[in-house]
Amino acid sequence: MTTKNRLYNIVTFGCQMNKADSERMAGILEKMGFQWSEDPNNADLILYNTCTIRDNAEQKVYSYLGRQAKRKHEQPDLTLIVAGCVAQQEGEQLLRRVPELDLVMGPQHANRLEDLLEQVFNGEQVVATEAINIVEDITKPRRESKVTAWVNVIYGCNERCTYCVVPGVRGVEQSRTPAAIKAEMIELGELGYKEVTLLGQNIDAYGRDLPGVTESGRYKHTLTDLLYYVHDVPGIERIRFATSHPRYFTERLIKACKELPKVCEHFHIPFQSGDNEVLKAMARGYTHEKYRGIIEKIREYMPDASISADAIVGFPGETEAQFEKTLKLVEDIGFDQLNTAAYSPRPGTPAALWENQVSEEVKRLRLSSLNHLVSLKAAERTQRYLGRREEVLVEDQNPKETTQVMGRTRGNRLTFFPGNIEELKGKLVQVEITEARAFSLTGKGTVGVL
Ligand code: SF4
């Protein structure tokens, strides 16, 4: 089958990892001759890159799929693909549920899309969910932004958090080599990208599967070493990384962030619960005291660092008193941003089978009281920006107010200010902050383009 001028569309659910995978798969499709179609209903190939973290994301996929499966009866050459975590988890089951599907592929297979499609175009229905060594990606991702880019540094996760499907669906840790990561960043710099976020499910695990230890017995390749190694890539002005794990977060890393000017003072370190018993049941491998210690250390080195995290309420067995410890932690630390979620049992995870599930009503109440506190604290924290000059990397026009542009501060706060996007896109601009809302800022205007 010729793929030239055929149209494709990708619908992405879930986390940054999935978004980065989608960009790579789009790059592969374009290399094969496909062209992007904004409207999935016009596309000849539709790929759903799925997520199992929340039940509604999974349900959404099924409802979208149902519609497209019907269309396939009228247009038999329509190619339907489910990729990502639902694909990995459900595998063959998905084909039984939606027999119109052509390809079901787990996240480890994202870079193999072209090979898999070849089999599909030869008339096969393909399920690719077996564990594999991830091949280095040589196609260019079709990146959504022209200013900021994600770069995968480690795939998979070896942790066994009892609520999480990731290890089951994304497989064991596989780090890319420092040289491959740097080469991708050099190319991004040449293309005019200004900011790179290094990505991993547990980025602090970077390098422990790569060969070599140092004389002092530590792994030769760590995230800290990687930051030093890629820091001077020309053109890249800012470096971020996510997601951190408190169990492995080191003072050496904090020092590197302080020392390396391009590494932004923003840390995303999920704590999940403020109670040690709950943390133990989650198998997170740290205590709230250790977590607090990390934040204290960060603030010792970088008092103004912005801190964000993830938290779960209503984990099986969580009592009111234990939930209050989460509130206490949020109260004490004062996060700049917190992603909160009510626990939702995911198939194939240990905690989903436990009998001590918390009722939906209690979860709802806890979530709303946590969210209320988060907004209060974020509104308090944000005041420190008022009247200050912040460096903003301009990414786009404000879609709601076209006389304004928007971008992020080094602390990752969304900031709007008057300006012309044609002139400012991709520029680092000093902005004087005149309004500070809980999760975003507005500036008076450009004080000077760097
Ligand atoms: S560290 Fe835990 S929560 Fe994060 S991806 Fe691994 S198992 Fe899931």
TrEMBL record:
Family designation: Belongs to the methylthiotransferase family. MiaB subfamily.
Protein name as annotated: tRNA-2-methylthio-N(6)-dimethylallyladenosine synthase
Subunit (UniProt): Monomer.
Residues reported in the UniProt entry to bind [4Fe-4S] cluster 1: 15, 51, 85
PROSITE patterns, per the entry: MTTASE_N (PS51449), MTTASE_RADICAL (PS01278), RADICAL_SAM (PS51918), TRAM (PS50926)
Cofactor(s) recorded in Swiss-Prot or TrEMBL: [4Fe-4S] cluster
UniProt keywords, alphabetically: 4Fe-4S, Cytoplasm, Iron, Iron-sulfur, Metal-binding, S-adenosyl-L-methionine, Transferase, tRNA processing
Organism name: Gomphosphaeria aponina SAG 52.96 = DSM 107014
Functional description taken from the UniProt entry: Catalyzes the methylthiolation of N6-(dimethylallyl)adenosine (i(6)A), leading to the formation of 2-methylthio-N6-(dimethylallyl)adenosine (ms(2)i(6)A) at position 37 in tRNAs that read codons beginning with uridine.
GO molecular function: 4 iron, 4 sulfur cluster binding; metal ion binding; tRNA-2-methylthio-N(6)-dimethylallyladenosine(37) synthase activity
Database matches in Pfam families: Radical_SAM, TRAM, UPF0004
Domain MTTase N-terminal per the UniProt entry, residue ranges: 6-122
Gene3D superfamilies with a match to the protein in the record: Methylthiotransferase, N-terminal domain, tm_1862 like domain
Residue stretches making up the Radical SAM core domain: 143-389
One annotated Gene Ontology cellular component of this protein: cytoplasm
Co-factor binding details: Binds 2 [4Fe-4S] clusters. One cluster is coordinated with 3 cysteines and an exchangeable S-adenosyl-L-methionine.
Compartment(s) of residence: Cytoplasm
NCBIfam families recorded: miaB-methiolase, MiaB/RimO family radical SAM methylthiotransferase
Reactions listed under catalytic activity: N(6)-dimethylallyladenosine(37) in tRNA + (sulfur carrier)-SH + AH2 + 2 S-adenosyl-L-methionine = 2-methylsulfanyl-N(6)-dimethylallyladenosine(37) in tRNA + (sulfur carrier)-H + 5'-deoxyadenosine + L-methionine + A + S-adenosyl-L-homocysteine + 2 H(+)
Protein's UniProt keywords contain Transferase: yes
Superkingdom classification of source: Bacteria
Positions bound to [4Fe-4S] cluster 2: 157, 161, 164
